């Protein structure tokens, strides 16, 4: 499958006159020219995270959406093939992408940047060819930094994902089933074939008694 990418952008102006650019999928050279906000440390220190993003940018299927304050990246969302160790990679669908990460600097929370990252991601008409999934685990959530309870955070997260058209899907995946707050969400594009949808449904449930 040829992964066509059409960069879309959105100018976001907040009530307090902050202006942000949300754009993507961006090419690698754009990412190289920008600096990552020092508070983007959910996965690793920001300088190391930029190196990781540059490696992701080399992947043919990857799609990186960023929120910028000038040349400062203050948030990003990454779409790429599921980790080979996850069950979602077993079906080897070339049009199944995972929202591998979405992060916004703590200095810029309250501007609905995460929602706009997903909105811009779905503005590319090519996304109608893909099944997009995200696996949400409560132990990855910034409960301490936000002060939210597990269920409050889950509610916020679900609303953010719905902005990008992702909906809750049942599964018998052991990690997701290990806690009721964990969940699988997905968006199935309008041009995804019935065969691909069947394969996705098959991998969601590995035990017949769950069907």
Written description of the protein model:
By secondary structure, the protein is α+β, with helices and mostly antiparallel strands. The chain has one domain: Aminopeptidase. 29% of the residues lie in helices and 26% in strands. It contains seven helices and nine strands; from the N terminus they run E-E-H-E-H-E-E-E-H-E-H-H-E-H-E-H. Strands 1, 2, 3, 4, 5, 6, 7, 8 and 9 form a nine-stranded mixed β-sheet that branches. Helix 3 runs parallel beside helix 5. The protein is globular. GO terms for molecular function: acetoin dehydrogenase (NAD+) activity; acyltransferase activity, transferring groups other than amino-acyl groups. InterPro entries: AcuA, Acyl_CoA_acyltransferase, GNAT_dom. One of its GO terms (biological process) is acetoin catabolic process. Residues 26-211 form the N-acetyltransferase domain.
Q: What is this structure's SSE topology?
A:
Blueprint: E1 8-13, E2 19-24, H1 28-33, E3 35-36, H2 46-57, E4 63-69, E5 72-80, E6 96-104, H3 113-123, E7 131-136, H4 143-146, H5 150-163, E8 167-169, H6 174-177, E9 183-188, H7 194-204
Parallel strand pairs: 3-5, 6-7
Antiparallel strand pairs: 1-2, 2-4, 4-5, 5-6, 7-9, 8-9
Helix pairs in contact: 3-5
Domain N-acetyltransferase: 26-211
Organism: Salipaludibacillus agaradhaerens (Bacillus agaradhaerens)
GO molecular function: acetoin dehydrogenase (NAD+) activity; acyltransferase activity, transferring groups other than amino-acyl groups
